[in-house]
Amino acid sequence: MERCPKHIAIIMDGNGRWAKKQGKPRTAGHYKGSENVREIAICANRLGVEVLTLYAFSTENWIRPQEEVNYLMKLPAVFFERYLKELMENNIRVSMIGEIDAFPLDTRNVLLSAIERTRNNTGMVLNFAMNYGSRREITLACREIAEEVKSGIKQIDDINEDDISKHLMTAIYPDVDFMIRTSGECRLSNFLLWQLAYAEFYFTDVAWPDFTPDEFKKAIEVYNNRHRRYGGL
Ligand code: IPE
Ligand code: IPE
Ligand code: MG
């Protein structure tokens, strides 16, 4: 593809509704959704995407029934057990944003080990947003910058937009070019508010487990026909 977005962010929504439609428990939808992460990650890497940020668990998702939360905590182990080898073969580097300290120790270890084992890979960054919330992220950034001012490292008048970007969890990644949300809802649900300032948005009714590589390529084609003006003409 001639003009592939560098940074794509996806709100992988609709696992529960997908499962319900099949007469299955919501957890079956999450499982199927995790299989689709593999499909889309491999496809995105082949297309030349540099960073793929996937919303996997929000700071708000803790209020779901305990059973569902527990299942979601166990999914990373299942996912990396099945697919880490393949991610390695595809030269994909795993990364995380969010406060994973809140996760059970074994889940955390699985995540950290995937990051560690793929850290020298030079292909696409597969960045999972886990226990991630944009307002929380911005709040933490404000605290860090306030500390810098307090200790005299920084003057208030010198704080600029770049400083804020650099204090976010996405500091080392470029702003998002293209944001996809599956399964019909047209909202951000506390995802990357700052980083999406000039992103192109794409909403589709297709549920995440049904969002195939062909659907993904269709979305990128739509992106390629958009005209990004950034306030200019
Ligand atoms: C997205 O699917 C996955 C997570 C939020 C973890 P949902 O679980 O939100 O599925 P729906 O929106 O209820 O169908
Ligand atoms: C957003 O989906 C979070 C993830 C996809 C991980 P939700 O299903 O939690 O969002 P709302 O509740 O519909 O806004
Ligand atoms: Mg949902």
Summarize the structure.
By secondary structure, this protein is of the alpha/beta class. It has seven helices and six strands.
Give a verbal description of the structure:
This protein has a six-stranded parallel beta sheet with strand order 3-4-2-1-5-6, with helices on both faces. With about 230 residues, the chain is of the alpha/beta class. The mean pLDDT is about 95. The chain is globular. β3, α4 and β4 form a beta-alpha-beta unit. Helix content is about 45%, strand content about 15%. The structure holds 3-methylbut-3-enyl trihydrogen diphosphate (2 copies) and magnesium ion. One 3-methylbut-3-enyl trihydrogen diphosphate binds near residues 14, 17, 57, 72 and 183.
